Queue: 4 jobs
Job 1
Amino acid sequence: MNMRQGKGQGGEGRGQNARAVVVAVCALLLCPLPSALSPLPSAVCPVGVRAEIIDRVLAILPGQIITLSDVEAAIDLGLVEPPAGGDRVAGGLAALIDRLLMLNEVHRVVPPEPTAAAIDARVALMRRRFSSPTELSGMLAARGVSETILRIYAADDLRLASYLDERFSSASQPTDEEIRQAGEAARSKLAAERRETLVRAWIADLRRRAEVTVLP
């Protein structure tokens, strides 16, 4: 992935990157980009509209930003899982970048819209991660996520799962020879391992082709 870090090497690199960050922040002040959990309408911001930065921007993708609140909300809702024992924010950010790159590919093919019932069921799973509706409401308010955005994120989950099944399920099936060697009981395990390998290779390719700036 073309990951342009906020810190450069040497004085000249630091100066150039600092100017790039200033330009990005100024652009966000004039017309904020959609964030990972709070997409804005695609229309161009009217001249003269003032916006206030109230969140820390962690990364910039083409036409989109990822904020600290986005990462925290995605982790809290179980939409991404940072590696155990690692830095929660850094791991969550990496996972959320991967997720957004995959969703960008999914949206290119215009997948079927999930049913309202399927979205309701996915939202219900997210709600069950919290001990009470009050706890969930507090988290959503703290992270700046509305109920509408919650349903959008649930729908994206369903679209992504459907896309991954369609693209990788057949290719993940073990061969007859592999089943003869490992036994029928190992079929599901072999398929899951192969699918994970294929998905990881796909994500790696998306990262190589992506333009992502991770800010310090």
Note: The chain has one domain: 2-214.
Job 2
Amino acid sequence: MDNGDNQHIRENYQGGDWQHAGGKLIELGAGSLSDAELLSILISSGIKGRSAEKIAEDLLAKFGSYKGLSNQPLRKFLKIKGLGDVKILRIAAALEIAKRCVDIVINDLKEDKELRMEVFGEE
């Protein structure tokens, strides 16, 4: 998402110390966030003694990457302390959106010879 699209959000944001990765995203853009910080935004809130970012770090440590997360049955996420049904559904939905985006790009590459040349320098 282009930071210019977030003008309304930035106008209503006070700035300063980031208590959550969302503040960092607003100020610096999504590209500046680590995988755990992005995932913590989906998780939203932690539990007593465990921040959303810590829960995200645990998920990534357990499954290795977003790809590792996407290959898991949802019930495995329940083993992570701090994740319940709603948080797991948010993560599953985000992973499915990402998968669909990748599928679109792959299909575009398959169908468009000029795009393949531009991206890969080959036919």
Note: The mean pLDDT is 86.
Job 3
Amino acid sequence: MTTEERVEKLETGLNQERRINRWLLIGLCLIVGGGFSFSFVQTKSAEATDPGAKIIRAKAFIVEDEQGKNRAVMTVGKDGTGIFLYDEQGKPGAGMSIGKDGTWIGLNDKQGKRRAFISVAKDGPGIDLYDEQGKRRAVMAVVKRGPAISLHDDRGGTRAFISVAKDGPGIDLNDDQGKTRASMAIGKDGYGINLYDDQGKTRAAMAVGKNGPGIELYDDREEARAIMAVVKEGPAICLYDTRGKAIWMAQ
């Protein structure tokens, strides 16, 4: 399975993140553009189970501090329920939403930039971590294929990807162009490491299987040109020409 396919599956497991901006806009509209001057809106008549208890019903609720600044907003809409908390400067600090597609919690720093995002969607739970520039640098998720972790550079490119599938764990390392340059996997039949050139072609492979360890070197067409192995019969080396024909062998 290629890195692109693994990342695509991971992104699917974290698709709830795309909805955070919409919820934040809803919360901001209630604060900035809604024109509310009450602590709650659209209130229905109070109901009481006894003379000393009352129930307040509303579609939105705003909590203000002593300076009249909004510090908490709770909304209920077609997409679900959202709660948003703001600091003394009015910057969003935390948000939580429960909707048809899942649940998420977002945490911001003092600058109002997102630093952590936790979601539970149909495909499974996920956690995103962001740097001080608001760029995503680490993702951890558990989807149908299994758990996975991806690490990103400051440009958003995936540089390392760790996953555990049914066949076993694997690690991919990418260059600054996002191309996989090294991969390591452990499967039922053995262990292996592959090295790739800047075109994504396999140039070297090392594996330990049931018959023993081996190393293969490939040309730019991914044709094996040299093989060294240690099997039950003993060590062996074989060199091949461009047509794949053995031209030298030692055993």
Note: Helices lie at 3-13, 20-33.
Job 4
Amino acid sequence: MPRRLPAVAPFVALALACVASLACLSCDSPTLPLPPPMAPTVTAGSDANHFKLTSACGGVEGGVTVIIENIDTTLADDQRVTGTLASPCGSWDAIVYGNRGDVLNITQDDGSVVSSPEVFQLPQ
């Protein structure tokens, strides 16, 4: 004679099905936007047209790619854009080419989302 399952078995099965459905739905949740990076500090570079940008832990999300674009279109393309990888704590540094007073757009990219830019002006 077949054995009868207790009356609670259908409720357990339903609860497990609900948990599995919620787990699948959470995978489709929208990605939160990245905030703009915090403004870096600037020190002199190797010559008058190079600047070292530095940001301490928390300046960006850990492990992201930091992209720095000089908006001066008179510069060569390879002088306008540079980037670096942030440390696990979100610190980073990079050497950028530019002229005093140039404006930089600094963003962070985690591979799926790019932040809005921190608009940053090099010292005059």
Note: Residues 41-121 form a domain with the Immunoglobulin-like fold (CATH 2.60.40).
